[in-house]
Amino acid sequence: MFNKKKNNDKEENIMNPENTSENTAENVENTDAPAVETEQATELSAEEKLQAEVQQLNDKYLRLYAEFDNYKRRTQKERVELLQTAGKDVIVSLLPVLDDFNRALKAMETATEVAPVKEGILLVSTKLKNTLAQKGLKDVESINQPFNTDFHEAITNIPAPSEDLKGKVIDEVEKGYTLNDNVIRFAKVVVGA
């Protein structure tokens, strides 16, 4: 009998649409409350994670910017030092030639003959040319060569003494030089017309 009454109550509850919606709403409210709290906790933790990631990326950016700024300063300082000492090796290699010139000047003061002094000056000149050649300096060949604006600067034109000298360099006023195949001074020349 008690069993029947319980079954009848269940049937009434099932049959009664009001009871069904109330029971369902209560069940939904009870199940949604923990889900909403977990979702809010997840959103907060996701937001905190994003803020932490933003902070980490910002810190990384600032460090990278500071490192690049230090790199710029360091390279600028190195460039200035390089420019200040760029000619140091050339100057050091020319010091023996300077010493030879000083000895030649002292020898000229007491010299009675011109031939030994002239020979000494030629030796010093040869030593100077060899030292500069070791550093990459070369003379530009000009006389009897076709006029070339890449190496020559025409001072004037004169009538060519012969037909084969037309358009060629007849005289050289100032010698031209190249340093490692780059022109550092154009030869000033007279061209035959």
Automatic annotation (TrEMBL):
InterPro entries xrefs: GrpE (IPR000740), GrpE_CC (IPR013805), GrpE_head (IPR009012)
Coiled coil (UniProt feature): 47-74
Composition skew (Polar residues), residue ranges: 16-30
Keywords associated with the record: Chaperone, Coiled coil, Cytoplasm, Stress response
GO molecular function: adenyl-nucleotide exchange factor activity; protein homodimerization activity; protein-folding chaperone binding; unfolded protein binding
Gene Ontology BP terms: protein folding
One GO CC term, this protein: cytoplasm
Sequence ranges of Basic and acidic residues compositional bias: 1-13
Region annotation (Disordered) ranges: 1-46
Pfam families: GrpE
Major localization listed first in the record, in broad terms: cytoplasm
Gene3D superfamilies attached to this UniProt entry: 3.90.20.20, Head domain of nucleotide exchange factor GrpE
Location within or outside the cell: Cytoplasm
Record's subunit section: Homodimer.
Family of the protein in this entry: Belongs to the GrpE family.
Its biological purpose: Participates actively in the response to hyperosmotic and heat shock by preventing the aggregation of stress-denatured proteins, in association with DnaK and GrpE. It is the nucleotide exchange factor for DnaK and may function as a thermosensor. Unfolded proteins bind initially to DnaJ; upon interaction with the DnaJ-bound protein, DnaK hydrolyzes its bound ATP, resulting in the formation of a stable complex. GrpE releases ADP from DnaK; ATP binding to DnaK triggers the release of the substrate protein, thus completing the reaction cycle.
Protein name according to UniProt: Protein GrpE
